[in-house]
Prior knowledge:
Elements: H1 2-19, E1 29-32, H2 47-57, E2 62-64, E3 76-84, E4 90-97, E5 103-106, E6 110-112, H3 117-128, E7 143-145, E8 155-157, E9 177-182, E10 185-192, E11 195-200, E12 207-215, E13 218-223, E14 226-232, E15 238-242, E16 247-252
Helix pairs in contact: 2-3
Amino acid sequence: MKHFFLTLAIIVTCFNVSMAQKSLSDYSFVVVPEKFEFLSKPNQYQLNDMTKYYLAKNGFNTYYFSELPSVDNCDGLWADVASIVGFTRTKIMVVLKDCKGNEVFRGETGTSKQKEYKKSYQDALRNAFLCFKELGVKQKAVAVRTKDIASPGQDVVIAPKSNIEESRWGMGPENQFNAYTYKSVAYLLKKVEGGYNLYDASTADFILKGTIGFSKSGYMGVVFDLNYQCSFLENQDLLLMGQDGVSLTLVFQN
């Protein structure tokens, strides 16, 4: 019963905050900084990567600024993660601002009692994103400006990947961070040069579980310590075919 009322409180808090603002789905992307001000290094404790992952998992089109295509900056949001000083707990809050620096969303404070810095910050950040699940965000397609269009200033809308017909050996997800599940366990598929890395996202440590690379014969990878021929299906599910004929499918969640 205590857990029920705690969950209800989180939902109500986030609902009240989001209702007071312009719909988050009206924006087409969110930019995550490569370094948060309260930390000394870029992506320290993997908090920046985790922020991108959880935003993508909850319906946002996420970019680092260095990855951002040619767009109208005011079409998007700018994310920040703030650390609130506490004596016995680590406290984290996610804030979203528009291109003019106006705050459009402030999430619920995530807390952790973990004593080790990395685990404490990661645990608090996970908890800060709990309320995002109830927002139902589904950002629209990103409008990218190109130099190859006939009319200056005209935008080219990039259609969602799911709307593009693919072959069996289809290209994988375009987003850098992609959520998957297998046997009720959450995984993060991160796009890297030449392929993808697969991480166990059910723990705070984001343990590497596989690497997948692209070759002339399709995707090949070592996942869960076994060799697989890999393919992305039309709905972006990841199919792994073993040498012994055994297959398994990771289900796309974005």
